[in-house]
Amino acid sequence: MGNAPSERHTAVLLVGFMAAGKTAVGKELARRTGWRLVDVDAEVEVLAGAPVAEVFATRGEAWFRREEERLTREALDRSGVVVVPGGGWAGVPGRLEGLPPRILSVWLRVSAEAAVARAAGDGDTRPLLTGPEPPLDRARALLAAREPHYAGAALHLDTEGRLPVEVADHILEILRR
Question: Which of 3, 17, 32, 66 is the most exposed place for a label (fewest CB within 10 A)?
Answer without folding.
Answer: 3
